[in-house]
Each structure stands twice: as structure tokens, then as C-alpha cells.
Amino acid sequence: MTAAPPAHDYAALARDIKRWARELGFADAGIAGTDLGEDEGHLKRWLDDGLHGEMDYMARHGTKRSRPAELEPGTARVISVRMDYVPPGTRNAWDVLDHPEEGYVARYALGRDYHKLMRNRLQKLAERIHAQVGDFGYRAYVDSAPVLEKALARNAGMGWIGKHTVLINRRAGSYFFLGELYTDLPLPIDEPASAHCGTCRKCIDICPTQAIVAPYRLDARRCISYLTIELKGSIPEDLRAPMGNRIFGCDDCQLICPWNKFAQDAQEPDFAPRHSLDGARLVELFAWSEEEFLRRTEGMAIRRTGYEGWLRNIAVALGNAPSGDAIIAALQARADSPSDVVSEHVAWALRRHGAAA
User: Fold this and answer.
1) Could you give the residue numbers annotated as active site?
2) Which of 1, 130, 159, 289 could form a disulfide with 74 if both were Cys (CB 3.0 to 4.6 A apart)?
3) Is 257 annotated as a binding residue?
């Protein structure tokens, strides 16, 4: 980072930054300091207990994740922003979950991948700041570096970390993305948000795989989002049936959260569902060729699971669906898949239906 600019009215600048952020399409913005000592302790214990599973990147960067100035030297403040992601007209989530012959995709992944979109908006925010104060040091992040984004957003006053480990805003629920602008500007820091989960434990009780092993403690190895996206290879057999028809991610802990009655509709048209993925039939999705998968998921977060993971996840969902000729035929058509991972899960699904490969 370059040296901070000469003295300015930083309180007024902070107000301007929040206004500019809203003008750029962010739902909210706040400013945090860089002290994450307590959160660093929580992260270390979580990693030491192996609850991150195969997500080695969570431990790869040492303390850079919890010490912003180590990741980006010169960082004095973090501007945290959020953007709502469920657009109006999206199919009701519970309705899809109640139709086991359809595939459930986490609501955040139905439209355009948010990473580039939010980074571009953060860059525009930085350009507005530059126009006001001149040269200053900054770096924009949207899931692109080791950043404790939820802790920073909490410290910036944008919500508290719920018992399911997701950030909750009392005026907007939890259906939003987060992004950060690390900066050397000595901006005034916002008051951290207070917690309002109380005695509620609905998120813990509803989790299909019981991945929330204690309040504020998630065992990623059991989480359906981890199993369907991050895990490469075979999904543990005892966790396949509880997955139901969830083929990419899981929203149950958010769907049940009382605070999401305040959730706000997304204002970004690019987040609208593509290819009817807010409730498409499993048999149709399972028939996609690799070329079709790559074409249809271009620019979408679903790409992250890869074609093999996509078929693996759908095979599990088909194994959990009600038996029928179409479902069994679809599975049998993939029984000799060149992928050992896919064929293994197809064989498991066929056994669930009492059918032969």
C-alpha cells in the first residue's frame, strides 16, 4: 500500500463511502478495525480439531486470515459491504425441498457468480474514494484471499454471527454476500453488532446432517454445502440419505431462521435464476453432457463442483427420490460412467431403489 494521504475529514468521508456503496448497489457498508484476536483463537481451535475437512486453504496462510495487516501491509481499516442475493420471483425454497424429484440448489448460486460482480463494484468504490482524497492504499477482496469476512462484517456493525456461523442482520436476515476493501485510511470505526439469537436453536435442530455440533461451531465435514461443493471424491454413505435432494449447497439453517422474515429482495438482475435451476427436475439435470454442463453453468458458482461432482450429487438425490421408471432408467444410463466416483454413487442409488445396474 502507498502512504496514507494527508489529513481529511474522515468522519465525513466515512459517511460518503457508505452512501457511495449504496449507490453502487451494495445493501449496506460499515467500517472495522483490524483487531481479530478473539476470532483468531476460535479459528485455530476449529482447525486444530480438523473441522475444516479437506479445505486445506483454511490453514494454508497462517495468521494472515485473522491479521489483515499481514495479508496487506499498511491496512488500518476494513470497509465491509454486503449485497442481497435472492431476487423476487425465485421459486420458494421449501417448495423445492418438498418435491424430492427436483434438485435443490442453494439460493446464492442460482444466478451469476457474485465474485467478479462485487469486486468490480468495490473497485468503483475505491475509484470514488480516490477522486475525493487522492492516492491511498487499498485492496479489494471477495472470497479471493484469506479473510475473516464474517468477523470483519460483525465488527463493522453489519450483523452478528449466528449459531449456524452465518452472519445475520436484524433488518435483512442472512441472504447476502460479503466483500471487503482493505485500506490504509484512518476512518472512524463503527460499533460492532450485538448478538440476538437468544435461546433459539432452530438452525441446530433442522440441520439434515447435524453439522452444527454446538452453537457457533460447524463441523464442515458433515455440512451439505461442504459435501456437495468442497469435497472431492466419495461422500460418506451415512450422510447421503440426509442430503435429500440438495445437489449444490444447503440453506436449511437459514430457511428456518426467524430473522429471515426480514430478508430483502436482491436488486441485482444478474442474480436471477438461470435455466430454471430454482426447481429443475433431477432426471433432466442428470442427462446433461459435460459440454452442456460447462455451457449452462458459465459464469455461475455451480462450476465450482465440477462435472463429476455435479453428477455425483445428483446421483445421491436420485437415490433419495421416490422410485419410478424414469429415475431408475436415468441411473442405469450412468451405471458405467468412466468416473469411479459417479459409478459408485449411481450403484448406491440403484440399490436404494432395489434395482440392478
Assistant:
1) 143
2) 1
3) yes
